[in-house]
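User: Assemble these into one structure.

Assistant: Restating your components, then the assembled model:
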Amino acid sequence: AQSVTQLGSHVSVSEGALVLLRCNYSSSVPPYLFWYVQYPNQGLQLLLKYTSAATLVKGINGFEAEFKKSETSFHLTKPSAHMSDAAEYFCAVSDSGGYQKVTFGTGTKLQVIP
Amino acid sequence: DSGVTQTPKHLITATGQRVTLRCSPRSGDLSVYWYQQSLDQGLQFLIQYYNGEERAKGNILERFSAQQFPDLHSELNLSSLELGDSALYFCASSVFDRGGGYTFGSGTRLTVV
């Protein structure tokens, strides 16, 4: 079975500060990993995905994530937070064969303080 | 606009009733996924269809059913509704039946009173 654990249901950062959202995964086979963002009253939007190519993945809106197999982690970062980054972020995992559905974490709400 | 269309956006109904949620996938996508999002359960996978066939089942109740039609749109039917079924129901689509990278619709907010 595959799963992801997001550390911290709420994270607050100051505008301009580093954003770090943590995700650890568990998978018995090489995983595909994803980060999605959900703005209020909207559906989820794919930020970035790791599919076994480069371990450092760049996504939209200046976000990036690094796949670390030894740490079973896929943390999301952004060097400088903007007010518009305030949203809920979901880490998700699928198997690399892609036969299984994507399993989502419980989400992390990011608050950006002016 | 993500290209995935869900209707209706909001639905209020009474306990015991039956409703149908509709989803039109992004053009060219063959897979449709249904998810339920609630405060206590988070984002739960319900069911997946690929090109008209059921491909995977998750935590879908027996009172719930779905289908995907030849034009690839999908419907999620919820019957004998209970207060606990109140949630956001999302549809997502993808080109293939594997590999992730879904495109989500904006959801249907169901309120059971």
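Chain A touches chain B at residues 32, 34, 36, 41-46, 49, 51, 90, 92, 94, 97-107 (CB under 8 Å).
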